[in-house]
Amino acid sequence: MNDATMKPPLAARREIPHVVSPGLWTLAWRRLVSDSVAMVSLAIVVAFVLLMAASGLGVIAADWAREVGVNYAPPTFVGPDAAPAAPGAPGRAGEPAAPAGPTPGSAFDSTVVDPIGDVLAELKAEAKGKAEAPPAPGGFVDPLADVMKEIDAAKAAPPEGKSVDPLADVMKDIEAGRGAKEPAAAPAATERRATLPFGADKWGRDVIAKTIKGSETSIFVGLAAALVATFIGTVLGAVAGYYGRWVDDTLNWFYSIFSSIPYLLLILAVAAVLQHKGTMTIVFILGLTGWTGVFRLIRAEYLKHKGREYVQAADAIGASNARRMFRHIFPNVSHVVLVQMSILVVAFIKSEVILSYLGFGVPVDVVSWGSMLNEAQNELLLGKWWQLAAAGGTMAVLVTAFSLFTDALRDALDPKLKGTTGQ
Amino acid sequence: MWAYVIRRLWQMIPTIVGVVLLVFVLFNLFGGDPAYVLAGKISNPEQIDNIRRQLGVDQPYYVQLGIFFKQILTADFGASWSTNEPVSHILATRLGPSLTVLVPLLVLETLIAIGLALAVAYVRGSLTDRMVMIVCTVGLSVSILVYIIVFQYVFAYQLGWFPVQGWGNDFRENLVRYASLPILILLVVSIAPNLRLYRTFVLDEINQDYVRTARAKGLSENRIMWVHVLRNASIPMITHVMAALPGLLIGAFLVERFFSIPGIGREVILAVERSDFPVIKALTVYVAIATMVANLAADPHVQGRRPAGAAQMSALFDPHPGCAGRPQRGGRR
After folding, report:
1. What is the pLDDT of residues B276-313, one digit of tens each?
2. With a CB-CB cutoff of 8 Å, which residues 187-246 of chain B face chain A?
3. Distance separating alpha carbons of residues B253 and A342, to the nearest angstrom
C-alpha cells in the first residue's frame, strides 16, 4: 500500500480494487486459525461429524448389531489372554485377573480343530466376568485359577462333546454365581471372540461399533434439532424485532410462555403427548422447545439494526420487507445465529442423551449414547465398565471440543466479548 | 417498588393463561383420546364411553378448557389416572422430599461457588485459574448420567458410605442419610457452570475504579474481595440463583429417579412413563407459575437494589432462567 501511495494517482486508482479489506468472516477465520485450542477442537468436531456421515452412509459400523464376541467380552487390554496391556488403559483398582492364565489365549482362538474351543472361550469369558464382578469385597478367591485348572483338565480329557461333567458343573456354578440368566450357550456358527478391542455388551456386540453408531444418532439429533430450533428462533426473532408492535407483542407472549416452563419439563410434557417414537420425533421435540434463546437474541439484534442507515437505504431503493430482513439485516446478525446454533448443538446432544436414557428418546432398535448409558448402568453392577466408559468418554470428548470451539468462535466473531463466558 | 411488583404480577396473567392454553392444546388436542390410554388394549366400546364421560372428554373443547381453568384455580385436578391418588395430594407430598434435597444443595452450592469464584478471579490469568477453568469445562462436558451412575456405584455400592437408594419418614434421617449422596452429585454437577459464571461477575467488578480506590486507601486484600467486590458482584449472582431455582427443581429429577427419592422430578418421569396426563398437566402449570414468581423475585428492582443502568431494560424483558447474566453483557454489546 505504501507503494501505491507513492505512485501517480492514476496507477493508484487502478491499484485500489486489489486492496480488499478483509471482511468480518475473513477476520474471524484468521483469529480462529491463530487459536490453537480452537483448531484442535474444530478438528475433533469435524472428525466426529465425518464419523457420523460415514456411519450414516453405512461405510463403517454398519454391522454393529452383529454379535461378534461372547457376551460381555472384555476389552482386549484387560482380558486374561491379552497381549501386553495397553499403557494408560483405564484399569480398575483391584484387578486380579490380568496376569492369570498359564495358557496363552491365542491357542484357544486359533485351534479351530478343538471341538470344545467355543465353549472354552465362553467359559473363560464367563470366568473373567465373574472375576470382574464385585463379590464380597476383600476376599478375592480368584475363581479364574480354578476354572483354568478345570479347563485344562477338560482339554486333556478325550473330547466327548459338551456333556463332559466338569464343564457342565463349572457352567452351572458360574451361572448360579452370576445370578443372571444366560442365553443357553447360543451355538452360533461363527466363532465368537473372547475379547474385543473395547469389549462387548450383553449380547456380544462390539462396543466400538456400537459407540460409533450411537455417535451417529446423538450427533445427528444434536445438529438437526439445532438447525430446526435456530431456524424457528431466527425467523420469529427477525419478524418480531423488525415489525415490532402487535407482531412483537404476540411473539413475545409466545416466548414468555415457552420460557416460563422449565426446559426439561417442557420436553417431557411434549414427549408424553407424542407417543410415536423415532429419531425425527426427538429432533422435532427438541427443536420446537429450544428456540427461545435464539429468539431473544435475534429479536434484540433486529431491533437494533432496523433503524440503521443501510436499512433505510435499502428501503429507499425499494427493497421489500422480507428482502430487507433477510438479505440486508440477516448477514449482519448471522454471527450471533452461528454462535447460538453452536451452543444449541451441545445442549441438544446432552438433552438427547438424557431423554434416550429415560426411554423417551430414540426407539429401542436405534442405539444412542443415552441408550448405551442405560444398558451400562446395570452392567456396571456386574463390573462391566467398558460400555459406560466408551459412551460417556466419547460424549465428553465431543462436548468438550464443541464447547471450546463455541467459545473460540464467539471470541473470534466478537472480540470485544473475549474473556466473558457464556452459560 | 410495590407498584412495580403489582405491575409485574399483572403482566404475568397473560403468560399464565398462555401456559394453560399450551398445556391444554398439547394434552387435549394432540394427546390422543385418553380413554384409549386408560382403558388399555382390551376394552369394549361401553367401557371407553364410560371413561370418556367420566373424564369429560366427550364435551366440546371450550367446555373442557373451562373445566381445566377451574381445576387450576381450585387446585383440584381430580385423581391420577394410574394410581387414583388425588393429584393435589401428589403435589403436596412430593414437594417435601424435593426441597430436602434442593435447599441444602442451593445453600452449599452458592457458598462454594462464590468462594471459589472470588479465589479464582483473584488469581485470574494464573495457572491455577486456567486449570480450574479447564477442569470446569471438561467437567461440564461429562453427562450428568455418568456422574450419577459412577458416584452411585463407587460411593454407595462399592464403598458403602451411603445407602444405594431409599427414603424414610424421618426428616433428619432423610437429610443426613439418604439425601447426602444426591446432594454431593448435584453439587459436583452444578458448581462447574456456576463457577464459570460467577467468575465473570467478579471479573467485571475487580477492574472497577472503586477497587483501585480501596487499594489506594490501604485496605487489606481480604476486605476488598470479601466486602467491596463481593457486595457488588452479588447483585447478578443473586439474580442468577433466584432465576435458577425452578430449574433446580426439575434438574434434580434424574437424581430423584436414581435414588428413588419420592420428589417432584421422579413424579414427572413416572407420569410421563404412564401417560398420566392430569399429573403432568398440573405439574407443568404450577412449575411454570413458580418459575415466573421466582423470576420476579430475581428482578433487581424487586429486591430494592439499583441495577447497573444497562440492566434495566433487560430486567423488564428477560424472564428466561439461566440467562440472568445476560443484562450486563448485553449492555456492552
Report:
1. 777 888 888 888 888 788 777 766 666 555 444 334 33
2. 193, 196-197, 199-200, 203, 246
3. 26
What grid cell was written down for B253? Answer: 429429577
Is A417's CB within 8 Å of B141's CB?
Answer: no
Taking CB atoms and an 8 Å limit, are A257 and B18 in contact across chains? yes
Alpha helices in A244-278 (DSSP H): 245-260, 263-273
- Which one is predicted more confidently, A53 or B76? A53
The CA distance from B280 to B271, in Å, is 6
Write down the residue that cell numbers 487499594 correspond to.
B215
Q: Which residue has the cell 459436583?
A: B188
Q: Indicate if the pLDDT at residue A380 is higher than 80.
A: no
Instruction: Supply φ then ψ for residue B96, to 5 degrees.
Output: -55, -55
- Name all domains of chain A by residue range, CATH numbers in brackets: 36-77+198-417 (1.10.3720.10)
pLDDT at A115 over 70: no
A177 touches chain B (CB under 8 A): no
**How far does chain A reach from its first CA to its final CA, in angstroms?**
43
pLDDT on residue B207: 80
Q: A92 in the Ramachandran plot: left (φ > 0), alpha (ψ -120 to 50) or beta?
A: beta
Q: Which amino acid is at B170?
A: D
Q: Given a cut of 80, is residue B158 above it in pLDDT?
A: no
Lowest average pLDDT, out of A175-184, A195-204, B108-117, goes to: A175-184
Note the pLDDT of residue A231.
92
Tell me the β-bridge partners of A206: A200
Site of grid cell 409466545: A254
Q: Is A69 helix (H, G, I), strand (E, B) or coil?
A: strand
Distance CA A358, CA A285 (A): 15
* Residue B134, all three cell numbers: 479447564
Q: Between residues A83 and B9, which one has the greater pLDDT?
A: B9
Structure letter (DSSP) for residue A198 = T
Picking from A262, A270, A377, the nearest residue to B321 by CB comes out as A262
Q: Which three cell numbers stand for residue B175?
A: 437429610
Residue the block writes with cell 464447547: A403
The domain segmentation of chain B, as residue ranges, is: 2-74, 95-314
Judged by average pLDDT, the poorest of A50-54, A72-76, B73-77, B229-233 is: A72-76
pLDDT range class, residue A229, cuts 50, 70, 90: very high
Q: How many CA atoms lie within 13 A of B189 on its CB side?
A: 23
* pTM for this prediction: 0.71
The count of CB pairs under 8 A between chains A and B is: 158
Question: Is residue B137 within a helix (H) or strand (E), and if so which, with residue range?
Answer: helix B127-141
Contacts of A261 in chain B (CB under 8 A): 19, 22, 284, 287-288, 291
Distance separating the N- and C-terminal Cα atoms of chain B: 29
What is the Rg, in whole angstroms, of the alpha carbon atoms belonging to chain A? 30
User: Cα A421 vs. chain centroid, distance in angstroms?
Assistant: 24
CATH of span B95-314: 1.10.3720
Selection from B97, B95, B100, B90 nearest residue B282 by Cα: B90
Residues of B in contact with A348 (CB under 8 A): none
